[in-house]
Design goal:
About 45% of the residues lie in helices and about 5% in strands. It is mostly helical. Among the domains are: about 170 residues, Lysozyme (Orthogonal Bundle), CATH 1.10.530; about 70 residues. The chain has a two-stranded antiparallel sheet with strand order 1-2. A two-stranded antiparallel ribbon has the order 3-4.
Length: about 425
Amino acid sequence: MQPRHRVSRTAIGLIKRFEGYRRTAAQLPDGRWTIGHGHTLTARQGAEVSEDDAEALLLYDLIAVAHALNEAIYTPLTQNQFDALASFVFNIGLDSFHQSGVLRRLNEGSLIQAACAMELWRKAIVGGERIVIDALVRRRSAEKTLFLTPEGDAWTPAPSPILRPLVDTDAQDIVPLQTPVEVTAILEGDQLVVLREGEPTPPPAAPEDEEPESPAQAAAESVFARLSAIFPENREPPEAAPEPAEDPVPFFLRAPEAEPEINDEDRPYVEEAEAEGPESGDLFSSGPANAAIFDEAVMDDDEAFEAEYEPADRFDRARFIIDDQAPYDFVAPVVRPLPERPESGLLTLVALAVLGLVFFGGGIFWASYARPVTAPHLLGPRLVGGLAGIAGIGFFVVAIYLLLDRLGRASERQARNRP
């Protein structure tokens, strides 16, 4: 049977340190009253309590906490673990503890994970905003430290040369994303008001004192000075070429310039080329020049054609006129209807369907009532019956398909013949 733990003086001192002492009763924002070390059950307006009585009220409140811990936790605990859990449950409440992941991990036997889960209860609502409270972070840290403190001197060694710590990326939730806020509870009459100590302080800025110049920086500055001397920044831009003056007379109204005279000795090759080439003429004329071009390009090898016709006649006969505005006689192609596919008779379809049913029924009967064969055979009775059943299904499906095709063709013919 699991032993029942009791709250020790260690848990009482830890709770008193973080709950504080309130001599006179004060009203909470939710309408309840509190007095002493966070006692709310019997607190009322105008009540006062001494320090000894406040500790007695705290012991009375811890009776329900200790009973809940003994009843809800099935894992064996040490006294330090029980005291840390008592402070934790007194702070968050019994209902929140029963729904928390701390209790679930305790009953799973994962005590280290339960201690880490305690640190997640660090937020509170202040002024309608859910923020991380600095005092709750400190309280969770103290409770976790007490929870992980073994009894006596049973510390497990973790030497640094052997176990070098590494960053645990799975525990990012333990580090708050926002800076914890310090709050102060003040009494305005009988009302207890929680005030923030101000906005989170910004991170400290780096000192503005100039550090001594490093060798790498000195080398970089010397290289920059050398490049500045080679490529000065204030160089004058190169002079742009003067733009030609605009001529007021358009180029197509200018008078043709006189061509320079060229001596005959300077162009012997030009004269020989002109002497060898044919005379220039109109591109669309039927003169001798175009006839000669036509002879050389088209009729080079037809000596009989050259002997019968003159060059001009040959060029004229090769030309013909295309009138794209003349009407075109379109001859419609003859469309022949496709021959109709012969239809199978109705008797054939019925015979095919009956054959399929016979094969299917016979195959099922053969496979079901055939005697089992002791010796191994390639084609046993069950295999033959199965194949016959499959063939019967195929015959029946083909008969149904042909029947539907016949009905479809008949409906098409009726639609075509309908006036």
